[in-house]
Amino acid sequence: YGRYTQDLGSFAKDEAARLRLQEGDTPRPRRPSELLEYTQGRCAPCRVCALQCQRFLISKVGEDWVFLILLGLVMALVSWAMDFAIATCLQAQKWMYGGLDTNVLLQYMAWVTYPTVLITFSAGFTQILAPQAVGSGIPEMKTILRGVVLKEYLTLKTFVAKVIGLTCALGSGMPLGKEGPFVHIASMCAALLSRFLSLFGGFYENEARNIEMLAAACAVGVGCCFAAPIGGVLFSIEVTSTFFAVRNYWRGFFAATFSAFIFRVLAVWNKDEETITALFKTRFRLDFPFDLQELPAFAVIGIASGFGGALFVYLNRKIVQFMRRQKTINRFLMKKRLLFPALVTLIISTLTFPPGFGQFMAGQLTQKDTLVTLFDNQTWAKQGISDEFEYLGILEAWHHPRSNVFITLVVFILMKFWMSALATTIPVPCGAFMPVFVIGAAFGRLVGESMAAWFPDGIHTDSNIYRIVPGGYAVVGAAALSGAVTHTVSTAVIVFELTGQISHILPVMIAVILANAVAQSLQPSLYDSIIRIKKLPYLPELGWGHHEKYNVRVEDIMVRDIHYVTLNCKYRDLQQVLHSTKMKNLPLVESAESMILLGSIERTQVGALLSSQLSPQRRLLTLRQKALSEDGHRLSDSSIRFQISTETSSGSPARPALRKPLKPALKRVPSSPPDSPPVGSADHSGIALKSLFCANAATEPTEVRGMDDPDFSIRACVRRMGRPLLALVRRPYTLPGPMAPPQILEWEEQQLDQLVDFSSAKIDPAPFQLVEHTSLHKTHTIFSLLGLDHAFVTSIGRLVGMVTLKELRKAIEGSLTGKGVKVRPPLASFRDSTASTTEADTTALHQLWDRHQHHHMPREAGPGGDDDDDTPK
Amino acid sequence: YGRYTQDLGSFAKDEAARLRLQEGDTPRPRRPSELLEYTQGRCAPCRVCALQCQRFLISKVGEDWVFLILLGLVMALVSWAMDFAIATCLQAQKWMYGGLDTNVLLQYMAWVTYPTVLITFSAGFTQILAPQAVGSGIPEMKTILRGVVLKEYLTLKTFVAKVIGLTCALGSGMPLGKEGPFVHIASMCAALLSRFLSLFGGFYENEARNIEMLAAACAVGVGCCFAAPIGGVLFSIEVTSTFFAVRNYWRGFFAATFSAFIFRVLAVWNKDEETITALFKTRFRLDFPFDLQELPAFAVIGIASGFGGALFVYLNRKIVQFMRRQKTINRFLMKKRLLFPALVTLIISTLTFPPGFGQFMAGQLTQKDTLVTLFDNQTWAKQGISDEFEYLGILEAWHHPRSNVFITLVVFILMKFWMSALATTIPVPCGAFMPVFVIGAAFGRLVGESMAAWFPDGIHTDSNIYRIVPGGYAVVGAAALSGAVTHTVSTAVIVFELTGQISHILPVMIAVILANAVAQSLQPSLYDSIIRIKKLPYLPELGWGHHEKYNVRVEDIMVRDIHYVTLNCKYRDLQQVLHSTKMKNLPLVESAESMILLGSIERTQVGALLSSQLSPQRRLLTLRQKALSEDGHRLSDSSIRFQISTETSSGSPARPALRKPLKPALKRVPSSPPDSPPVGSADHSGIALKSLFCANAATEPTEVRGMDDPDFSIRACVRRMGRPLLALVRRPYTLPGPMAPPQILEWEEQQLDQLVDFSSAKIDPAPFQLVEHTSLHKTHTIFSLLGLDHAFVTSIGRLVGMVTLKELRKAIEGSLTGKGVKVRPPLASFRDSTASTTEADTTALHQLWDRHQHHHMPREAGPGGDDDDDTPK
Fold it and tell me: Across residues A407-428, what is the average pLDDT?
């Protein structure tokens, strides 16, 4: 149907043009099926039918909900299969450990070797297949959802590496989590699915839609990891977005619910569960979940968790920075990349070895078992009651004959804290949410047990005895610490969905909010911390309640001394601008006097303009034309033939700064004698068209060269052209010989003095503009809303400055810390804003106005002046 | 301290100016306290101390969290007090009804009169005090949060009217809700609190901040109404926002949690509850909440609720439209405004009269009791078991000796459905959430009871018998129907928080999502429906998965034929533009040839320019000047004195289209003889300055006149000026006499031919610009993100069109229904977007370029041309 589609395309264009012309009347355009019938006569009906069926299917496949269901289904399967594999791995370790109970040394070997091998394999596999799969992935998703394209982060290779690497890493029993990586996995799954479905319809190509789908995928990732659809949606919003479109909300809910449902149904079908319930179901009493007088204890948990969370983020960052800074360690580790993971695993697993130090910290429990025991319904420490509490089943791990449960808990918390902070720096796919969650639960349990020991019969003394439920404290602690580390409130919702009980809602909310308040004032979130370490392009959040952001204005932070391109500039000016600035986008103004902003042009486009002006092709063409004018039409049009690689025709309007270097689109084949016909010589009629097309595409290779080389200098380009390389190749043709270097230089100087022809350059016709007195707060909002990385500051059409992400970042960090960028003094709010800015505007306008009013009589004396000039004084 | 602040102000201005000049160095500006010490010597220290204390307090009061705590506290108190008053009202009715059980007629009179009086009072009170308090308030809040200023919706009067009106309306026992009004009440509370706190510091003036606080207030409203902090935040986001700033999230959570906490603590202190628990606590079993095989039943509830919700919205709208359309009814009701509420109340309370028809629909239960019974743990209908179920306590209302519970439930649902739809149209403060919630619960209960009757021993047949829990179905039904009516998913979270159990999370989520899917495809949400009825300025949402929105472009929907103002136009042109268009904002272009967009100017500003040019003052001034040049300096500068009302100096840069008319800022006092000194004559030195200032403000009154009068025409202005009114007043001065009308006309014609001086007009220097090929989807996003109501379409600086909210609305509704505006055919996606648009841009650029290149040699022949021109063909 190749030709058919082409027909349709041109038909559509005509239709669109016609419609645009006749905007008044409303006849429906002829449907393409009618067109088909009209042109193809009798055999058409069945084709029409088939086509309509196909179109129906495509239109259905294009629906969002099909995509979301598929995404949810796939992710639920992945999550369930991974859980199954992880459980098997852990089972195997336990089995080995249990089977070798005759010899402690053998036991130790088995206990230590198994995770070391798994982690090393995971690190090596990830390193080889896709290093992008390392780490949590949430920081990268946050950056991608801001509109930045990160190469290779959403590919099949990364998907495979992340899934297998994560399974191995978690199967090792290290304190690592699956939640962050799952956000990344779900996003990759969405991207792949989107690419797969685009085979059926062109709808999946849209960039805005892809971003929306990625946002939904993040929700699915959390949702199917914890079987927590609501918490998943909220957590993914908090963690990845700055501004959230409420119309995307249902997408996340729909997909996450479906995914969580399938995830739990798989467990039922596998006979793990009798019916669909929560993942870590608790059974606290409903009548009297907690006493009002226990609230201070919950608040203490919240505040302590806030400090703990900040400490965790700090520790994690310091470990990474220490590893980087120590050059000897670093050099050694760079050589033996797998040594660091193996070493860390060795240390951690040695310390958790159950017959060794592990007996003081419940070392034999897996992460899941630990959580189950911590959320347990019973009170472990009972005082004053004769019958000693019996630790049954897996609870036994917390019991040590020669110490009590408080010591075990304290040791567990302290050890796990640094272990988790260390383990999450291993270069394998891993998250930190779950380890932190467990530590928080243990801390909550500790407080709860202490409270239970303090008030054995509960606090409430009216009528009934309501004992204290330490499990409830564990739930509160888990939510608070994980909320503090990630700077989210939605961990509260996640614990409700994980435990299946919402009766502790108020304590949980209070603790989470307090923990957030403390942690946010001390440290960035774990993900922001990683973003800073990895130096991803980000925009810091505005902090809580800093007033200065309302008083700092764009005019205080903008760069005033900007380089620009004028419409009537010469190539020499372009060259100079490229030399003098590193800006990625150059403003295009009407003229240096008026400074009216017309648009913005990319640096690479300017480079392309310059190099095409100075290109050897043009030089040769000039020479050839000279020769032509002398020799008449000695050269026929068939003397040069173009071979076109079809790739260029599929060039999509992607972000040029990040697209792959195009393969050289244009290859000049030497003028072939008639006895050796090239492959494409049959369609001679198309040559004129193709050569025309190629000529348009001719600037591409140079443009790309300029892109890859950030220090692209024209001198280098000139030097490269100085070599008579191409000219030598050209010698076989009947063309005049190459110029001598002095001639070339002269020609170039002459070329540089010509006026620039912007018609072949791509110009952004409506770059984003701000006004001088826009507040920092509003600027931040607009930048994060629209995902900008620069904006021009204009005043009535005139360009006066520019703000980039860099300035904004500096200003925000400056206004928060009081250092760095100069912020307006607090008194600035006293300044009468309207008066001063209106004045400035008026002045600017006046300049413009005066420029147009040279023939007008002087303003002071004329009747057109303001009253103030004429009022007698 | 009046003078002191002035000093500070000017000091700050100087400092700011100095800082702006010396951007390089960083000496800290002298603190104002130092300045104080320097200037005031010895008695300063204590003053400094006091000042610092005061400043510390102010800075603390300025913090967000203080505001949020106060807001939460106040709203919790309001909510609790209102609940208490409502409960008392309902108790009183019950007591009256119970006390008169000897005579049915008297009982009936009491049952009917009581609510009628209350509703009538509520309607009358609201009508008199603040008609804005009528209805739910959520549609208005949605509009306000979009950036539109609705007058009088956030005042103290409205607050009082809404609180008292709502208490009376709910106390009557009608099927009305308190949730929607509470969103409004909380917002008003926030606005008032903000205004109150601004007495302590200037920080509360910021508009962006106020919007953020209003968003938090909406969350508080829902949160303290249901004691549901999380659901409150989510519901308020879904209902009021299109784009949500995640940084506002914590504000909502913080305030709503605090509010819900206080709300429940008040109940504990009042001994209503033993501890903090959910509002409608359920006690379903936790082990096996529901069977996997019950899910189809839940799905059925969801789908049916979707249809039901759409029907409810439709019914509600039809009732309103019917009341409006029926002219006889309408005229009658307009005269007797209180008759309609009284009539509706009479009908509804007659039907619910317990000894009458009410016995078939549990008429004696209040809304709260109904919910408690519907969420009950037991199964009402048991078959095949000998012992009949005993209806104890309030459950008895559902039991009718001569019918069974199914009939009662069906009757209840049917009757309440239309009653609720009708009752919510009464002009009192009322919401529809709670009535719908109750109907949904009853429907769910009906399905649950049917399931329980169908499977008496549960579906699960493996080992244990798990009976079906009809109360769980009621919870699902309540969430689904209220979700369908409001188009929200967060009702799911609200029911979890209301019932204190989350075990039914998956059924609830599935039902809510299905209900939303059905309802959203049939009808707008209740709030959007009200927005349409009330014709508030809104932007419809983009529907689910309509692909066309990606293919329709701005160039398809924009208005091409726009009127503009050029920089070098004459007053006559302004006059013509004002005559020919109704646009509120006129683009200002450089010239008609270049069409370079410089800014936008408001219609009213243009009017002000024109009328100031033609103002009698100017005419007189001209005359006076003529006289002056003849008579020399006969008039001294003291002959005219200005009296300044201080209001003008506090003019903030508010939205000019909506600010209140300024009081005439300038009053000319007749030239006073020296024996009657005016009040302000002491400071003679300031007159020159003040008169200068006044002259600047002189255009204000006319400007305001133009604003209030939308059909402001220059002719009318001219006619008004034709009257020699002012000139008559002027006659006492030593000025030449008034012009004769022909003279005036001549003078005006002459004035109209002058070039416009824009220096006194306010120009928006950076109006929002779009590009021709921006998609409808992106345009919608940008409009709702930034709260725009118009945008100019430019192409490399040139103005080519304009899009307003109207066009956008038409296009969206057109693309959804296929009617109305002409949408691009589906084939448009085949069109090669890059090629065509780049071409258009290039053409536009060429025009500009050519304009500047007249001296340049023709492009086709020159060496600066593209390769395609020179390639031999």
Answer: 91
Q: Give residue for tokens 């350059």.
A: A761
Check whether residue B517 and residue B551 sit in a common domain.
Answer: no
| Residue where a domain terminates, one of B477, B508, B534 | B534
Strands A790-795 and A798-804, bridge-based pairing: antiparallel
* Residue of A67, A487, A782, A827 to mutate, testing the B interface (most B Cβ within 10 Å of its Cβ): A827
Residue A464 to residue A458: CA distance in whole angstroms: 10
Q: Identify the CATH number of the domain in which residue A211 sits.
A: 1.10.3080.10
B863 domain-assigned: no
- Smallest Cβ–Cβ distance between A547 and the set B203, B243, B762 belongs to B203
Please say whether the beta carbons of B441 and B478 come within 8 A.
yes
At A70-117, the pLDDT tens digits run 999 999 999 999 999 999 999 998 888 888 878 888 888 888 999 999
On whether both B196 and B94 belong to a single domain, the answer is yes
Q: Say if residue B78 is in the same domain as residue B157.
A: yes
Listed residues A208, A239, A270: the one ending a domain: A270
Query: What whole-number percentage of chain A has pLDDT above 90?
Result: 20
Q: Does A822 touch chain B (CB under 8 A)?
A: yes
Dist CA B609 CA B602 (whole Å): 11
How many domains does one find in chain A?
Answer: 3
If we measure between CA atoms, which residue out of A486, A409, A499 comes closest to residue A177? A486
A292 closest CB neighbour out of B276, B278, B873: B276
AA identity, residue A819: K
Q: In Å, how far is B816's CA from the nearest CA of chain A?
A: 15
Are residues A771 and A814 part of one domain? Answer: yes
* B389 contacts B378 by C-beta, under 8 angstroms: yes
Please state the rounded mean pLDDT for residues A582-598. 80
Task: Tell me what pLDDT residue B40 has.
Answer: 52
The whole-model pTM stands at 0.72
Domain housing A69: 58-270
The reply to whether A628 falls in a domain is no
Q: pLDDT per residue over B108-130, tens digit each?
A: 888 899 999 999 999 999 988 98
A137: left (phi over 0), alpha (psi -120 to 50) or beta: left
The pair of three-digit structure tokens given for residue B264, joined into one six-digit string? 């429940």
Question: Would you tell me which residues 622-681 of chain B have a C-beta closer than 8 angstroms to some C-beta of chain A?
Answer: 622, 625, 628, 635-637, 651-653
Residue B807 maps to a domain: yes
A798: Cβ contacts below 8 Å, ≥ 6 apart: A594, A595, A596, A597, A844, A847, A848
CATH of the domain at B554: 3.10.580.10
DSSP state of A730: H
Contact A594, A840 (CB under 8 A): no
Residues B132-150, mean pLDDT to the nearest whole number:
84
User: Chain B closest CA to A159's CA: distance in Å?
Assistant: 27
Residues of chain B in contact with residue A206, where contact means CB-CB under 8 angstroms, are: 550
Contact yes or no for A796 and B598 at CB 8 A: yes
Residues A227 and A303 in one domain: no
Q: Both B400 and B298 in a single domain? A: yes
Q: Which of residues 172-211 of B touch A (CB under 8 A)?
A: 202-203, 206, 208-209
Q: Which residue from B minimizes the CA distance to A776?
A: B208
- List residues bridging with A586 in a β-sheet: A601
The pLDDT-based confidence of B171 (bands split at 50, 70, 90) is: very high
**A403 and A497 assigned to the same domain:** yes
pLDDT above 60 (res A182): yes
* B814-854 tens-digit pLDDT: 644 433 333 333 333 333 333 333 344 444 445 555 544 44
Q: How many angstroms separate the CA of residue A415 from the nearest CA in chain B?
A: 32
Shortest CA gap A15–chain B (Å): 8
For residues B70 and B136, state if they share a domain: yes
B245 vs A708, more confident: B245
Dist CA A781 CA A775 (whole Å): 10
Residue A247 within any structural domain of the chain:
yes
pLDDT in tens, B669-694: 333 344 433 333 333 333 333 333 33
